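Dear Dr. K.,

Following up on our conversation at the group meeting, I've run the structure prediction for DNA-binding transcriptional regulator, XRE-family HTH domain from Marinilactibacillus piezotolerans. I'm pasting the input sequence below exactly as I used it, so you can double-check it against your construct before we proceed with anything downstream. Let me know if the numbering doesn't match what you have in your notebook.
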Amino acid sequence: MLNNFEKIRKEKGVSLVDIADLLHIRYQTVREKINGDSDFKFGEAVKVKYAFFPEYEIEYIFRRTYESEEEE
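The predicted C-alpha cells came back this morning:
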C-alpha cells in the first residue's frame, strides 16, 4: 500500500478521478496501483508527482508500506 501517497492525496483533496484523468486510465486502476495490486509505471509516477505533489520527493510519495512495517 502507498500510505504516504494516500495521506498526501487526501490532505490535498486530489481525487482518484483527478489522477485517472491525468494518466488516461480508469480510477479503479489507480486504486489498484495504490493498494499494491499493480505498480505505477515510472512515467506515471513522475506525472503524478509534478501535477499534484511537486513539493514532495518522489521516493517519499511512492514508498511502499508493507504489513510488517505497519505493525511497528
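Two things stood out to me. The first helix runs from residue 3 to 12. The chain has one domain: 1-60.

Best regards,
J.T.
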